[in-house]
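Lab notebook: predicted structure, single chain.

Context: the supervisor wants predicted structures on file for every construct in the current expression panel, including those that have not yet been purified. This is the next one on the list. No modifications to the sequence; it matches the entry in the shared construct table.
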Amino acid sequence: MSQFSIIFAGREQDRITVECADVSAARNEAVQRLGHYLSTHPGFAEEGHWRVMVEDDVGRTVVTVIVATVSPRAAA
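Prediction complete. Output recorded below exactly as produced.
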């Protein structure tokens, strides 16, 4: 198992350290944590987009998860 840090952009001081088998598992953990965060902080979803970085044990970004909400354009 390797250690990874999950960091929500704008909340770098709240980094979360997790142990995962590989980068793919760390990415999945980051997505799950983002989903949980959005479900418990619904107002955060109004901000429009979120970026969650996953760093390896030496601080290199190995994955960036970007989620955006887009309102449909009004019909012309």
